[in-house]
Design a protein that fits this description.
This protein is an alpha/beta fold. 36% of the residues lie in helices and 12% in strands. The strands form two sheets. Strands 1-2-3 form a three-stranded parallel β-sheet. Strand 1, helix 1 and strand 2 form a beta-alpha-beta unit. The radius of gyration is 14 Å and the shape is globular.
Length: 132
């Protein structure tokens, strides 16, 4: 039996449509504190997970992303700004995806192989090769 554990690495205000990304800095971030708690639970259980990470989070907390990766967890993308895919033009989607993948790969020095779109809990896309 194969079991999978995934984490959407975002803050609560990133998924609220009425809060624009330009205002995210006004809210207390809980990402680091809560992620370290999750990592400790995973360590105690010898559990590895895929962290679907916003590019925004990767840019803001590169040390956290590096730590997650160094512990053997996969870092995949959840887009850059948690924008709903069906509200983006193909070009907006391409730019959002590229920015998030570039941020994550620059930190981890590993290829991003997965993508979960915002509000897409049931759908995960696996990449063999990314082409923008």
């Amino acid at each position: 039996m194969i079991n999978a554990m995934t984490v959407d690495l975002e803050d609560w205000h990133h998924s609220v449509d009425s809060i624009p990304s330009e205002d995210w800095h006004k809210y207390e971030s809980r990402v680091e504190k809560n992620t370290y708690k999750i990592l400790e639970c995973f360590k105690k259980s010898s559990l590895k997970a895929t962290f679907f990470t916003l590019g925004y989070i990767a840019e803001k907390y590169p040390g956290l992303i590096k730590e997650i990766s160094s512990l053997g967890h996969e870092i995949a993308t959840h887009g850059h700004l948690h924008r709903l895919i069906y509200r983006l033009t193909p070009e907006e989607f391409r730019k959002d995806l590229k920015r998030s993948v570039d941020a994550i790969e620059n930190i981890t020095q590993q290829k991003v192989m997965g993508f979960r779109y915002s509000a897409g809990r049931r759908y995960i896309i696996r990449f063999k090769h990314l082409s923008y």
